[in-house]
Amino acid sequence: MSFPLYAPAEEHDMLRETVRALADEKIAPHAAAADENEEFSWDVYKALVAADLHAVHVPEQYEGAGADALATVIVIEEVARACASSSLIPAVNKLGTVPLLLSASEELKSRYLAPVARGEAMFSYALSEPEAGSDAAAMKTKAVADGDSYILNGTKMWITNAGVSEYYTVMAVTDPSAGARGISAFVVEKSDEGVSFGPKERKLGIKGSPTRQVILDNVRIPATRMIGAPGTGFKTALATLDHTRITIAAQALGIAQGALDYAIGYVKERKQFGRPIADFQGLQFMVADMAMKLEAARQLTYHAAAKSERAMHGEPQKDLTFLSSAAKCAASDAAMEITTDAVQLLGGYGYTKDFPVERMMRDAKITQIYEGTNQIQRMVMARQLLK
């Protein structure tokens, strides 16, 4: 009896080669400078747009490449192997637009997805607030109906690519008496009157991607910019994360792969006691463990991506919430361990900015925190298992 090989398709492998070649040539050379200068790299953005790799997930009917969820994971993974900050371009474009793909009217999808697909705009996601992090339902940002408009007031926090993105999916309370069921989702444009941004956060890692507050001061937007029905915003937000936690897992895989590849190259060259340090069993065991953890996390992530793809096409996937949390948690924990070990394998050099692994270690940390901390992921997994 024959069955399809449990592996990515040939097209996926070809895509990986394409992205890796682009990342090695156009992205990796800028990674250290982007980190050092804390500047968003428009050159990298343009290179991704030119190769149609900036938002591969957008369906063909909205002028996108129509890539499946696994292809999107591979793109993010390969960009992150070169530069974690740059991988947030395809990842956050997906995060910002999945609410529209899941819940928006056709008119809203056509209007906002096509410019993203064409590379004319990026799309960020605004859920968290100063007092509403893990407890996102505690948000205070309000949207008050006024004729055929809504007026938004509040502050969103930790918004990735804030200020460089043109569009924002914003969650706001439309019915304060209804708790999580009183939250609605909207599209806000950077150019809307009353939209401003806080100063750039001074971060440990992913410094080439700005993180800022999005401040909404009496921002009036047409009611047609609501994503889905009133009160469905929080449900949409949670459904979105089932798909996009997998992209954070992909980012973690890429960071870890970059660190492992660099460390392997180093230990084969570096000599001590008259021979390459790769000859020493203690170091061989470290390298073996790093690769094993990475491959386990990768298989889990690809499995979750396959489930995500089916769910996006309307096939209910009972275990998607569990698998996406498991992939994000396993991959980010693995990335933190692998990058820390890579620094160790380089010894004193690993601790310096002359070598990329210290940057990778700093970049890996955020993958354990954003899009739901790994403590929250464990709660999510346990609830799925015990319900």
Automatic annotation (TrEMBL):
Residues 125-219 form the Acyl-CoA oxidase/dehydrogenase middle domain. Coiled coil: none annotated. Signal peptide: none annotated. Residues 10-120 form the Acyl-CoA dehydrogenase/oxidase N-terminal domain. Residues 231-386 form the Acyl-CoA dehydrogenase/oxidase C-terminal domain. Its cofactor is FAD. InterPro entries: Acyl-CoA_DH_CS, Acyl-CoA_Oxase/DH_mid-dom, Acyl-CoA_Oxase/DH_mid-dom_sf, AcylCo_DH-like_C, AcylCo_DH/oxidase_C, AcylCoA_DH/ox_N, AcylCoA_DH/ox_N_sf, AcylCoA_DH/oxidase_NM_dom_sf. Keywords: FAD, Flavoprotein, Oxidoreductase. Transmembrane segments: none annotated. One of its GO terms (molecular function) is acyl-CoA dehydrogenase activity. Belongs to the acyl-CoA dehydrogenase family. PANTHER family: ACYL-COA DEHYDROGENASE, ISOVALERYL-COA DEHYDROGENASE, MITOCHONDRIAL-RELATED. This is Acyl-CoA dehydrogenase. It comes from Nonomuraea turkmeniaca.
